[in-house]
């Protein structure tokens, strides 16, 4: 199996996470941001992640990819899901892009390894986010908005090994969002969130992204 991905992409990390948790080999192919052809030639449109199965069939939905990998060998996502965790993920996602998107181009990520790819990302994202410098200057304000959500999450974490006590798709939703948020210098996760993040990241074997 091959995953076309961006290093910063949290949906891609869902797929990388389940493969790592299950010890299933996954070939990771980082796509340059300006290489739309790599995606279009496979699935007819620009989208990431794309999982190319061993029979050559591409998959386009990250949670379908997670289900596909979860069906291989012994299951690991055996715990219950809680709607409150999905809701918390949605609340986190309303704020974190304003902190993370303006930082990714500063992190020396492989999807922006050329100036063309780097500037392609900027042109694409600035259509939505308008001014990355201005957003980075509002870091304290966005962190203040995010902290109460992370405090609510802190109160809901049942174990450092799994948000609901036993691994479930809620962990697949949550850990990638925390991995993205953790790029923000000055953002300190509450204690149980920190413990959860560090424990589960260590279990996946992936290092956190750089902090800036
Ligand atoms: N529902 C899809 C959503 C995929 C998606 O929205 N991907 C975004 C990146 S995270 C994308 O392809 N954006 C277009 C681009 O990067 O040009 C999934 O969960 O895999």
Assign an overall shape. Answer: flat
Q: Beta-strand level of the residues, as a percent range? A: 5-15%
Derived structural class: alpha+beta
Separate helix tally: 9
Q: Mind telling me which CATH architecture of the largest domain this is?
A: Up-down Bundle
Give a topology summary.
Layout: E1 2-5, H1 10-22, E2 27-30, H2 36-43, E3 50-52, E4 58-59, H3 62-70, H4 83-100, H5 115-129, H6 132-137, H7 139-154, H8 169-181, H9 191-204
Parallel strand pairs: 1-2
Antiparallel strand pairs: 1-3, 3-4
Helix pairs in contact: 1-3, 1-8, 4-7, 4-8
Structural write-up:
The structure is a single chain. The protein is of the alpha+beta class and 212 residues long. The chain has 2 domains: 2-70, Glutaredoxin; 83-204, Glutathione S-transferase Yfyf (Class Pi), Chain A, domain 2 (Up-down Bundle), CATH 1.20.1050. It is built from 9 helices and 4 strands; from the N terminus they run βαβαββααααααα. The protein has helices at 10-22, 36-43, 62-70, 83-100, 115-129, 132-137, 139-154, 169-181, 191-204, and strands at residues 2-5, 27-30, 50-52, 58-59. A 4-stranded mixed β-sheet has the order 2-1-3-4, sandwiched between helices. β3 (50-52) and β4 (58-59) form a beta hairpin. α1 (10-22) packs parallel to α3, α1 crosses α8 (169-181) and α4 runs antiparallel to α7. The longest helix is centred in the middle third of the chain and has 18 residues, at 83-100. The mean pLDDT is 98. Bound molecules: glutathione.
Which tags fit this structure?
Glutaredoxin; Glutathione S-transferase Yfyf (Class Pi), Chain A, domain 2; four-stranded mixed β-sheet; single chain
């Amino acid at each position: 199996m091959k995953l076309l991905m961006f290093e910063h992409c949290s949906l891609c990390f869902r797929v990388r996470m389940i493969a790592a948790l299950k010890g299933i080999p996954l070939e990771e192919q980082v796509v340059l941001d300006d290489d739309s052809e790599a995606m279009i030639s496979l699935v007819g449109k620009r989208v990431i992640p794309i999982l190319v199965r061993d029979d050559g069939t591409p998959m386009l939905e990250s949670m379908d990819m997670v289900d596909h990998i979860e069906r291989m060998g012994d299951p690991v996502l055996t715990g219950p899901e809680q709607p409150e965790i999905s809701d918390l993920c949605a609340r986190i996602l309303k704020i974190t892009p304003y902190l993370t998107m303006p930082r990714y181009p500063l992190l020396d990520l492989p999807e922006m390894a050329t100036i063309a790819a780097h500037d392609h990302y900027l042109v694409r994202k600035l259509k939505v986010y308008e001014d990355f410098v201005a957003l980075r200057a509002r870091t304290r304000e966005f962190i203040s908005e995010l902290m109460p959500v992370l405090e609510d999450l802190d109160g809901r974490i049942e174990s450092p090994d799994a948000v609901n006590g036993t691994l479930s798709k809620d962990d697949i939703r949550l850990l990638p969002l925390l991995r993205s948020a953790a790029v923000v210098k000055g953002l300190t996760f509450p204690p149980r969130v920190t413990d959860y993040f560090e424990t589960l990241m260590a279990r996946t074997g992936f290092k956190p992204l750089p902090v800036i």
